[in-house]
Amino acid sequence: MKHHGFFLVAASLMHTALAHMGIYGVWLNGEFRGDGRNVHVRTPASKINSPAGDTFAPEWFWSERGDFYTGNHKGPLLVYIAPAVTSGPNTPNIWTKLYHYAYNTTDGYWSDDYFQKNAEATKGHHFITIPDIPAGDYLVRSEIITLQEAMYDNGAQHYPSCVQIRVKTNGSAVLPGGVSFPGTYVPLQRGLKWGLGGDDPSEYPIPGGPVWEGSPGGGIYKLSLLAHPVSATFSRFFVYRLGTITISNGFNG
């Protein structure tokens, strides 16, 4: 058995931005853990006990629960993990990508199309499975990058959030790292500078490097309730632009 404790990551609040997308709450192993909007960042950590392979699923929303964002917000969905005890602005290359999704050449869907056109199946959810990693504290960074203004310099919009987890029993998987925040996303790099109306979406280069081969993966749909009750606390997050950073109502991942 593996035991994961999920708890709040402290907020880094700066000046107000035009944040119009957020996480309403978190689901763990298919069970909703309550409205997480604007939870005080000093809320004591909630802990969970659950088997290996816990599923962690943010529920995204627009202005009210169930109205997942509409319009042209195409772009990649990305999830990373890093050891929390060594993470920080001056700690390079500690993040490992667990999941990403951008464009499906078969059906022509971007990640936001799955949220919108398959709304009954997704309910604004995507999920990842926590890998069988060594005991310790980790940060999980979930992020959507929207490209509707990415034809302009620094036009890509980033919506990241971080949740800290605690793994209490030792697994054998070793996270390779290789991704750094800040540093991985560079203004004007291909994938952040992108024209939805002119560039070929089948050639879109997803930022942040490849998904780790040892990742259990994830998906864009709502999971059914599993047998193991869990709990968590969390908060809303922010939007920022590379180059001219603006942040509101949330915490930095």
UniProtKB/TrEMBL annotation:
* Protein's recorded name: AA9 family lytic polysaccharide monooxygenase
Question: In UniProt terms, what function does this protein have?
Answer: Lytic polysaccharide monooxygenase (LMPO) that depolymerizes crystalline and amorphous polysaccharides via the oxidation of scissile alpha- or beta-(1-4)-glycosidic bonds, yielding C1 and/or C4 oxidation products. Catalysis by LPMOs requires the reduction of the active-site copper from Cu(II) to Cu(I) by a reducing agent and H(2)O(2) or O(2) as a cosubstrate.
> Which sequence ranges are marked TM in the entry?
none
What superkingdom heads the lineage?
Eukaryota
The Gene Ontology CC terms held by the record are:
extracellular region
Q: List the PANTHER family.
A: ENDO-BETA-1,4-GLUCANASE D, PUTATIVE (AFU_ORTHOLOGUE AFUA_1G12560)-RELATED
Which keywords appear in this protein's UniProt record, sorted alphabetically?
Answer: Carbohydrate metabolism, Cellulose degradation, Disulfide bond, Polysaccharide degradation, Secreted, Signal
Q: Look up the signal peptide feature and give its range.
A: 1-19
EC no. given is: 1.14.99.56
Q: Tell me its family.
A: Belongs to the polysaccharide monooxygenase AA9 family.
Give a GO molecular function annotation for the protein: cellulose binding
- Residue ranges constituting the Auxiliary Activity family 9 catalytic domain according to the UniProt record: 46-194
Q: Where in the cell is it found?
A: Secreted
Asked whether the keyword Signal is assigned, the reply is: yes
What does it catalyze? [(1->4)-beta-D-glucosyl]n+m + reduced acceptor + O2 = 4-dehydro-beta-D-glucosyl-[(1->4)-beta-D-glucosyl]n-1 + [(1->4)-beta-D-glucosyl]m + acceptor + H2O
The reply to whether Isomerase figures as a keyword in the UniProt entry is no
Q: Give an example GO biological process.
A: cellulose catabolic process
